[in-house]
Specification:
The complex is a heterodimer.
Chain A (H helix, E strand, L loop, with lengths): L3 E6 L2 H5 L2 H14 L6 E6 L11 E4 L3 E3 L7 H10 L13 E2 L2 E2 L6 H4 L17 H6 L4 H9 L2 H11 L11 H10 L6 E6 L8 H8 L1 H15 L3 E7 L3 H16 L15 E7 L8 H8 L23 E5 H13 L1 H5 L9 E8 L5 E6 L4 H8 L9 E6 L5 E4 L9 H6 L8 E6 L4 H15 L5 H18 L5 H17 L3 H5 L2 H9 L1 H8 L15 E3 L9 H5 L5 E2 L7 E2 L9 H5 L5 E3 L1
Parallel strand pairs in A: 1-2, 7-8, 7-10, 8-9, 11-15
Antiparallel strand pairs in A: 1-3, 3-4, 5-6, 11-12, 13-14, 13-15, 16-19, 17-18
Helix pairs in contact in A: 2-3, 6-10, 6-13, 7-8, 7-10, 9-10, 9-11, 10-13, 17-18, 17-21, 18-19, 19-21
Chain B lengths: L3 H15 L9 E6 L1 H6 L2 H14 L5 E6 L11 E5 L4 E4 L4 H13 L9
Classes of the chains: A alpha/beta, B alpha+beta.
Chain lengths: 595, 117
């Protein structure tokens, strides 16, 4: 038996910063020090604090090593694992206090988190089904198929008030009961692991860190609605996730937990993976199913809803990865346990992927109802370089921004809709005072223009026109009239688009117009970009009173737009200037201003 | 795998080992002093044995960790049993037999092994 476990993150983030080499080196050094019978190395899924990867935790002490490199491994193995001296210098600095090393559960990043969907991520080896079983894995499916009727399962899901974590927030139990009610010779259970929102990676992390939870949950869903076949639709851009899920499915079959007559009952269920090519629209349920069928991923009108006519024309349920990740625990611990977390209408927890201008980029899971301020300032560690929080975008290109004035709003489905945003899959992109909100809206519109499938006109043409209007504004040619026209067009696109992509695409524009109209007006009326981002509206000039003629600016200018004699005032040739701002950053005398 | 018993057997096989990965507040910490002197006296073997006994016997209020060399001024291997309330007992020159006694009488029974401390 091992006396110590060394857990190394093998998620996409830490893998790209070299965790695989760290694992190899650990094995080598552990062998060298004769510790291979005492210390086990485990490659796990994501710990969440991606900004500080690669991350390694040594148990039972719980020493949290962050941003380590292969070169640190010999020292950690010899000093810590062999001789017992924790290498404090390499620990996550939040865990090192004047009173010694504190547990990671006491750090700001972890203290307020509550892990349900991510329970096993960063705890188990995702490629070892027995570790999942050791933490009560596959107990829920056993309980469901041997002790409960399909209706019992659906009732528990309804009572738990679990809502879809992919963004829409539709009650899962109701979705299942609709599919169960439709009699058919064949029904399907699908999982949406397409995760198209730029900046969101919780579904990937569940697949990479706890794939058996998804398999078990899909089996429970299949039992509840009377299906025997599942499909997971996952983008090919997630190679590690695909590989681990494939491996997990294979293992589950070997153990008889997928296949015919599971646990000796009449219930049979198996599942397959379908790879998507990464189109944003394939995250929309009807487009996703069309893609699984082997056709071009385009949406179709609803009704009929998937619960009536879904995949291959048969009753189908489609849930998101994070939704599924909650289900085995709800079955095991009961609906009451789940409803004890969260707000009145949004129960449980939500995983957020923190990105943008934030110190602790990574994955966090908090009870519904946690405020944006708590997530950004306390868990996320605030904004880098002492800058001020300006807004946060939730829900990616389909969502909207939340301004600083709503910093204390409790995050749940209904509150976010009310303030003009949406939960989306949980991407949370933080913006500071250096971000131009018009530019942000333009960025998201550019994305939706690219990703619009083209099937319906309001989305295909409407988003393009909207994007052009934003370009007109950021280039200094917009008028106040354009703002009104834009708003009208937004509502038109929302009302008339075929699917969720078009219906939500104008949200970034509408919410920035609502909360940052003054910035739009500055662009339109004053021809000025307050954040200094829209280059067409910027003009750099040198203040003769402050310039000492050191020539530093002219040497750093990439296009040779600055000239002058040493010790005399330099000047910028505006016709050559590309407005990169390099001169302003370089000048030590504050002599260059941006207007 | 066809029965609950088979599932529970897998769980039982791995569960003790998985307990290493929890960070609940434990009210007793067993610290084995390592360092070169400790290692020379076989402290790593004592550490492994104590850890194993605590894990397989489900002594959930105890965690067994190692520390760097501490100058207790007594012969190695040195094992210190520390409770969250502040009490501490130091055992010196611990061998396998003593390790088992410490687990049985002190960690499970709650009484420091006076004859050894």
């Amino acid at each position: 038996m091992y006396r110590s476990h060394v857990l190394v993150c093998g998620g996409t983030g830490c893998t790209s910063s070299g965790s695989k080499k760290i694992i190899d080196k650990l094995h080598e050094e552990i062998d060298k020090n004769g510790l291979h019978e005492q210390v086990e190395v485990v490659r796990t899924g994501c710990f969440g604090l991606c900004a500080l990867g690669p991350i390694m935790i040594v148990y039972p002490e719980g020493s949290f090593y962050s941003a380590i490199s292969v070169d640190n491994i010999p020292e950690i193995v010899e000093e810590h694992l062999l001789k017992g001296n924790v290498v404090t210098r390499l620990l996550y600095k939040e865990t090192v206090t004047d009173n010694g090393v504190i547990s990671l559960n006491e750090t700001n990043f972890y203290k307020k988190q509550h892990r349900v969907a991510l329970k096993n991520c960063g705890v188990i080896d995702p490629e070892n089904i027995e570790e999942y079983i050791a933490l009560d894995g596959y107990r829920a499916i056993y309980k469901a198929i041997t002790e409960m009727t399909p209706d019992d399962v659906i009732n528990v899901m309804k009572e738990s008030k679990l809502r879809g974590r992919g963004g829409g927030g539709f009650p899962t139990g109701i979705k299942w009961s609709l599919a169960k009610a439709n009699a058919s010779d064949k029904k399907y259970v699908c999982c949406n692991a397409d995760e198209g929102d730029p900046g969101a990676f919780m579904d990937r992390s569940v697949l990479e860190g706890d794939p058996h939870a998804l398999i078990e949950a899909m089996a429970i869903a299949a039992y509840a609605i009377g299906s025997d076949q599942g499909y997971v639709y996952v983008r090919a851009e997630y190679p590690i996730a695909v590989k681990r899920l494939e491996f997990a499915i294979h293992q589950a079959r070997e153990y008889g937990l997928l296949g015919k007559n599971i646990f000796g009952t009449d219930f049979s269920f198996d599942m397959e993976i379908r790879l998507g090519a990464g189109a944003f629209v394939c995250g929309e349920e009807t487009a996703l199913m069309t893609s699984i069928e082997g056709n071009r991923g385009e949406p179709r009108p609803r009704p009929p809803f998937p619960a009536q006519k879904g995949l291959f024309g048969k009753p189908t349920i489609l849930n998101n990865v994070e939704t599924y990740a909650n289900i085995p625990q709800i079955i095991l611990k009961g609906a009451e346990w789940f409803t004890s977390m969260g707000t009145e209408k949004s129960k449980g927890t939500k995983v957020f992927a923190l990105g943008g201008k934030i110190n602790n980029t990574g994955l966090v899971e908090v009870p519904m109802g946690t405020t944006l301020r708590e997530v950004v300032e306390e868990i996320g560690g605030g904004i880098p370089n002492g800058k001020k929080f300006k807004a946060a975008q939730t829900g990616g290109p389909s969502g909207g921004c939340i301004p600083a004035s709503l910093y204390d709003v409790a995050i749940d489905y209904d509150n976010l809709i009310e303030i003009g945003s949406m939960m989306g899959s949980g991407g949370l992109i933080v913006m500071d005072e250096d971000n131009c909100m018009v530019d942000i809206a333009k960025f998201f519109l550019e994305f939706t223009v690219d990703e619009s499938c083209g099937k319906c006109t309001p989305c295909r043409v409407g988003t393009k026109r909207l994007y052009e209007m934003l370009c007109k504004i950021t280039s200094g040619n917009g008028t106040l009239e354009d703002l009104d026209k834009m708003e009208k067009l937004c509502y038109y696109i929302k009302a008339n688009s075929l699917c969720g992509l078009g219906q939500t695409a104008p949200n970034p524009v509408l919410s920035t117009l609502r909360y940052f109209r003054d910035e739009y007006i500055a662009h339109v009326v004053d021809k000025r970009c307050p954040a200094g981002v829209c280059t067409d509206l910027l003009k750099y000039s040198i203040n003769p009173d402050k310039c000492i003629g050191c020539s530093a600016c002219s040497r750093v200018c990439p296009v040779g737009a600055i000239s002058g004699e040493i010790k005399k005032t330099f000047v910028i040739d505006v016709s050559k200037c590309i407005k990169c701002g390099a001169c302003m950053t370089k000048c030590r005398f504050n002599a260059i201003s941006r207007g | 795998m066809k029965t609950l018993e088979e599932l529970l057997a897998v769980k039982a096989k791995l569960a003790p080992q998985m307990k290493l990965r929890t960070l609940h507040d434990k009210d007793t910490t067993v610290i084995v002093s390592m360092g070169e002197k400790g290692l020379a006296a076989g402290a790593d073997k004592i550490l492994c044995r104590l850890s194993e006994l605590v894990l397989i016997n489900d002594i959930d209020h105890v965690t067994v960790i190692q520390s760097g060399a501490k100058d207790y001024g007594v012969p190695d291997p040195v094992v210190e049993v520390k409770s969250a309330s502040g009490g501490s007992t130091v055992y010196s020159a611990v061998d396998m037999e003593m390790a088992e006694k410490i687990v049985k009488e002190h960690l499970v029974g709650g009484n420091p092994v006076k004859s050894l401390s």
